[in-house]
Amino acid sequence: MSDSIQIADKKILIIDDQKPFQVMLKGLLSQLGARDVTAVGSGEAGIAAHNRDAYDILLVDYNLGRGKNGRQVLEEMKVRELLRPNGLFFIITGESTRPMVLSAIELQPDDYLMKPFSIGVLRSRLKRSFQKRHSLHRVYQTLFEKDYDACIHECIEHVDENGRYRNYCRQLLCELYLKKGQLNQAEETINELLREQRFSWGVLALAKIKYAQSDFSTSVELCHEVIRSTPNAVEAYDVLARSLQGDEQPVKALEAGRKAVTLAPFSITRQLYMSELARDGEQFELAKQAMQNVLDISRKSVYRNPRHLCNYIRSILDAAEQCESKLEINKYHQEASLALQRARSDESLFGGKLDYPQLENAVMARIEAFNGRYRQAQVHLNIVAKEFIESNAEINKDIAPDVAIAFLDIGEFERANTLIRKQKSDKQLDRYNTQMLDRRVKGKESQQQAYSEHNKKGISLYTEGDFGAAISEFEKALELAPMNSGVALNYIQAALKILGTSDEPLKYLVEGCKGCLRVLDGLTLPAKHKERLTTLKSEFENLQAQT
């Protein structure tokens, strides 16, 4: 077979921040017959160039200085669907560290070139990739169009014809069947392959199928088989971790997750799952580290999002709340403040999409509430949740989980529950925050239930005219929810009934009313509560004036 390749009519883009390498690579391509070669010096410039005028071949260096790296360029082009179905994407690098190599390869570029390479290596790699794209052009086209039924048909046809890339088509078939939920077809396809030869990737595909079928123990066994033959099989550790979690083996699941992150640490999905496993195992420092990795990875990637900063800060506060040492708690709180300050100085990262003053107040509300400084916590909540408290208006989705937690901690259970229900119904919560809020609600369950029982009993006793007993119940409710505006108003209303008919000053009730008024002073309140407060405060002041 001829070693010649036809690239004279191909548009080629080189993305490399080193001018000498650009010149050298242009020379090699020219010797191979290339006529249309463009070179840019950054990942951002490369994405913009390709978006304006799609290229047939992209040769991208992994390390691109201060901007996006080659992995992030490939990731963004895939997410934004900028790559053409007949185009080639090569990653080039002079580094060979295992985490970097594995993290790049798992995004499946067409090929991976190690510097330095010869013109012969470049020719053979281009030829190999062109042949595959040409032979499977209908497969790639239908996959690009997301016409999965047509893609399945093309793959089956290639396998039936005993085509050169039949194993690739079997692997793709399995993935497509899994995507469509057709597990029996996926299993039949892979078992047919494994009867011919026990390929590791085939065994891994079967492990994925077994996991999808909730056959966790079999999936675990298959993953171990893959790992024994291919110790660096990152995805095998991913599937193993999820299967062990499904099989209710959290400690081993965490070990598998840590191994996957160690092998290939630059995946946001993998780091998020690591944080989930760590949190479930009450390894809050480890969960925090994973969330910090998510933030760092996302900074220059297509997945850049204010949510990652918020979740990182939440993971710090979660870690603080599990500490018994005041020194450790303060250290974590300082770390959260420092993380927020650093992010604010780099605000351009989020393009103005994050309201930092609101986030700061939400974070401070949590810190103050956790430390028992409920009045200070409420001051911060008044700033970030004023419209929500007054009229149930929307709260910024980036800070809503922290506002809900602060409400729970100061005893405003009704508002917390309303906000959490709203976030869930509007599907604003990712998995991390859903689990965090569920855990917090469960942790406050007994306190909230006791508060609710005392408050309801107090209201019932008040209705029956037993104001003294009602006050006793409201006092118990206030001990459990010291900043709850509703029960504070209930206490004042019941106390006024006794004070208004008593000939004695009843100092304890007067002081109790004053304490409740201090709680309510300056608070943002719903319209009905505000009206009640005005009326009750006026009645109390009149009684005081009379005595």
TrEMBL record:
Residues 11-130 form the Response regulatory domain. The keyword Nucleotide-binding does not apply. The modification 4-aspartylphosphate is found at residue 61. It holds the Pfam family TPR_8. It comes from the Bacteria. Keywords: Phosphoprotein, TPR repeat. SMART domains: REC, TPR. This is Response regulator. It comes from Aliidiomarina sedimenti.
